[in-house]
Amino acid sequence: MLLCYRLIASFLLSICFQLLPTATADLPPTVWINGSQPLTGTLSPDGLVESYLGIPYAAPPLGPLRFSRPIPFTGSYANFSATEFGPSCPAALSGGTLAAFDDIAGIGKYLPPHMRDALHDARAQMTPMDENCLSLNVFCPAAKNPSPLKPLLPVMVWIHGGAFQFGGSSMYPGDPFVRDGIALNLPVIIVTFNYRLGALGFLGGSAVLKDQQSANAGLHDQRLALEWVSKHIEAFGGDPSRIVIFGESAGAQSVYMHTVSHHIQEQKPLFSAAIMQSGSIIPTGYVDDKGPEQLFWRLAENTGCDVTDGFAALECLRYNATLDAIIDFQRNLVRNEQSGIITAYLGWSPRSDRDQSGLLPAPVHELSMTPRAIPQITGNQQDEGTLFALVLNATTGKETEELFQSMFGRASTQQIHQALTLYPDNPFSGAPFDTGLRNAVTPQYKRLAAVLTDIIFQAGRRLALARVPVAAVPTYVYQSTALHNIIPVLGTFHANDLIWQWREDEDPSLRWPGRPGQGILKVPSKAAVAAATQAKVYRRYFIAFATHHDPNIGSGLPMWPRFSDLGRDMLGVGPSMVYVDRDTFRTEQIGFFAQNYAGFMM
Ligand SMILES: *[C@@H]1O[C@H](CO)[C@@H](O)[C@H](O)[C@H]1NC(C)=O
Ligand SMILES: *[C@@H]1O[C@H](CO)[C@@H](O)[C@H](O)[C@H]1NC(C)=O
Ligand SMILES: *[C@@H]1O[C@H](CO)[C@@H](O)[C@H](O)[C@H]1NC(C)=O
Ligand SMILES: *[C@@H]1O[C@H](CO)[C@@H](O)[C@H](O)[C@H]1NC(C)=O
């Protein structure tokens, strides 16, 4: 009888919400996977958030599975202790893209201390790397914060960014989101996961293309994680029919790829809405393009796999090359080569493998012709390109032209010249935008930053947006100028939104309770106001959107008008307030890249 009572009690705890009070404070929160496998997590000290960490969703991607598409986890979750983040996937540098740019280009020197601290915190939170890294994490409102009106909760699945080669899910603890959801009375469940990065996840080249099971392994990891969530989230109290996928940078590009991969026959859709922060269509072509082919052979040469036959080289990379040798090669690229940090122009990135039954049968910009028409939010930081321009090495107009020729090998001479004309050699029109002559740290810096902003970020977003039937599909657009004239040289730089979204809370009493390694940020009050505004934009609007497919319902924030082809209204995100703006800037320049997109693929 006692045992029976215990089982019932822990079953009640197992769902993320419950209606009956129970006196089971000492039992760890438990969910029952597949109805029979009890998996235990952790309750936050204040009793608000349950977290289940490090849950394996795939078989270890080792041995024959290195570079290969993942296969589902086949073990049992019974008595699995989901109390620690799993290892991060191997990367050249620890701590995500911003930490990498700090290492290589010293961006920290431009940032105020509280932002620098956030960067260092993110790095400290990244768990050690291991090739066996395919796990996911679930954060949900705890049992004693019930939402009686909504039996199953909306789910937000985060795909982390990092140029497809940096970062890990442990940098993004879901607690602040869950707390904001509770505070808004819009409770949500957050899921984060790891996927393979760099060469292990996105090795290209003709040998990889021939062995189709080895192309875009990291993207297939993401897909498998989404399948796991769809299948099992109900055990956590989540609603599998209300899943929003969201991500930033490479994570947003990934989100976009999943929205155009709908040719895969799904019994039920894996998600029903999407949020893309600084990423949409990715300007890449095919797995066997020149860039990834060269990278494949350079990797082989540097890992003792310099054999003439591509198949043998791939087998050697799979079975003989040490993880250290692979990661050392990636690290050398990042540290020692111009554009190494963007890996020889997006070298480790998803590309079409021409597999009609796979995720990318054609380049993304072609797949974008028939997007899945689902509610979406898409937006950018005003000066996305500044970080990337900092590491490029062109100081004269002629060097810029040469750089463009090597970056955009498909573009005709005429297209290159048109681009150079549209982005004149004049700091007034460069990025950080609207800063006159200021911030021109080198003569071509602002020009390069402007071009990279538009080709990697804005052109893809505008092109994708033009292909969404926005009259029928709730679509919301934003653009942040939050750091305009505040941060020198970088302006409103790529990925600054992550700092507010994941690392700062508006109410200091809510900050990062409990977990080791999570520092409490000491923010001066003006910056605190700014941080609160930013956190609200990237959390509260998004939570409302996840719940209602409308960021306005329940968010308690100023009206964010829906995007339309005619009005082109978007949310402007300022340092301490939001406003209504229009998505009409740089029409000619961005339009040129959008119209000539195939020519400027990397
Ligand atoms: C869950 O149960 C189904 C059928 O009952 C089984 O096919 C599947 O392998 C199980 N999954 C796990 C992860 O145990
Ligand atoms: C899980 O733990 C319970 C209680 O300790 C035990 O009875 C059960 O056999 C365990 N199950 C597995 C699969 O280890
Ligand atoms: C890889 O290792 C196997 C077994 O140790 C060996 O036979 C083979 O020659 C190695 N391949 C290369 C390219 O070194
Ligand atoms: C930058 O360019 C100069 C002149 O072309 C060259 O000497 C230098 O090695 C380059 N630096 C890097 C990091 O590529």
TrEMBL record:
GO process annotations (BP): lipid catabolic process
Residue ranges annotated for the Carboxylesterase type B domain, each copy included: 48-579
Keyword set includes Cell inner membrane: no
GO MF terms held by the record: triacylglycerol lipase activity
Keywords, sorted A to Z: Hydrolase, Lipid degradation, Lipid metabolism, Signal
Tagged with keyword Hydrolase: yes
Reactions catalysed: a triacylglycerol + H2O = a diacylglycerol + a fatty acid + H(+)
Position of the signal peptide: 1-25
EC supergroup of this enzyme: hydrolase
E.C. no: 3.1.1.-
Domain of life: Eukaryota
PANTHER family assigned: CARBOXYLESTERASE
Protein's name in the database: Carboxylic ester hydrolase
Organism this protein belongs to: Magnusiomyces paraingens
